[in-house]
Amino acid sequence: MTLLSPSFLWLMLPLFLLLWKGRLLFTQRIHLIVLMLLVLTLSRPVEEQALQEASIKAKDILIAIDVSYSMKATDIAPTRYDFAKETIALLLEENPGDNVMLIAFTTNPLLLSPPTTDHKLITIALESLNPEFILTKGTSLEKLFQQLAKMNRGHKNLILMTDGGEEDNLEKLTKLLHEADVSLTVLALGTTQGTTVHNSEGTLLKDQEGNLVVSRINPLLASLVSSVSGTYIEPYLSAAATAREISRSLQSNARKAQNVQKMQRYYLERYQIPLFLAALLFLMVHTRAIKYLFLLFALLGFQTQASVLDNYTLSLAYKSYQKGDFNTTLMQIKQIKVRSLQSQMTLGHAYYRQGDFKKAIHTYKSIRSTSVLIKQQLYYNIANAYAMQEAYDKAKIYYTRTLQLGEDVDARYNLSLIALLRDPKSAQLGIAHPKSQSSNSSKSEAQEAKKDETRSEDQPSSGSGGGGESQSSKEQKKSKLLYDGKSEQQPLSSKVYELINKGYIHEKQPW
What we know:
- The structure is a single chain.
- The protein is α/β, with parallel strands linked by helices.
- The chain folds into 3 domains: 2-46 and 281-287, no CATH class; 55-262, Rossmann fold (3-Layer(aba) Sandwich), CATH 3.40.50.410; 308-500, Tetratricopeptide repeat domain (Serine Threonine Protein Phosphatase 5, Tetratricopeptide repeat, Alpha Horseshoe).
- Helix content is 48%, strand content 13%.
């Protein structure tokens, strides 16, 4: 049970004080209770139901942001990159229901966030990207467009935020855009006169011949937009005005909206309960037909029978899970007609504890939530299941996603264990069991894991720590697999920056 409009509960405070301190008659007290129930009705009590797939009208938007060294130029304040970053944040606010994908590119493109209507994930991915770790200086629109053409996701609205780099092959770029099937909107980040670029030490950047590097907007961008009938936008005085102009460009696009499949949360309204109780109390005071009112109450109670039974069945499933009777847990969960977040989590945990990791992964992936904490738990559980299958590459991906959403000691340790593993037989691995939604249960499981120091890879404990060997050997392996502790911790994994910086030493035309 949750409240959709909890702010109304502030109205309860004076009513409580009056009921507690006031010298009131019995009838007056009943009236105060009736008012409290009406306030509770206004706060909209609901029960969360299972996520359901729904078709919504939304634009399919792809944002590509240039993160090359030239984006540090200050001809657009505070820098070209910072202006683009702020514009993206405001653009997401302007288009809250659209399906957005985020790509960062230099000489190499990298997907930072897959298509999603949960814009908080895009914001997290963008905030986690640190330009200081990006070493490439060049900009390759050709590789970006080649990557878009390979995606094969149908028509897309491409918002390209860049200074254009040194690209000069207009015909080839135009052909690639047609193959990618995109409607192009370019935010040209730069000026015609250009500006110098500062190094991190504060000195001016120079090329290999010792000449000062002056970064200007590439005139090819305007020609490219004209060749594909796109929209060319120059930065306005503020990022907010620029974001509004980009939104207008998207709205004027011929293909405004598409049907996008989205998992939506549905709620079962429960405001009828406090409203009915308020009416019942009021009529009990002011009418004699009490027996008819109780009969009506009994009839209405049948409508809530199904949800009450589901909650009871879920509580039985919890008890079976805690006893280790996972077969019974699965049977009880499958009896629930309308699956909730809690029941789906329990189902995934039960499959995991039975060793049916494929079904556990499928169940975890079917769960959708707007909560960052729940997403982090799901990614962690999926990573553990992949690791138990010795699918280490996939496990690395989901441990990394877990850490992108926030610090997690267990995920970081498990990732350090499998970071260098290629041959599944080359080392033993201690993997934690699924994290539950309750932080208390996670802590208690972690305490159990510390006690169980002798379990093998095939016999994991019920803890949420990463044990699988003695504490001394655990620390020894950890020291072998982790990077130097003095090295700076990066918000994104080093693999992300490795993909962006790929080949930077051999850049042919960095400017």
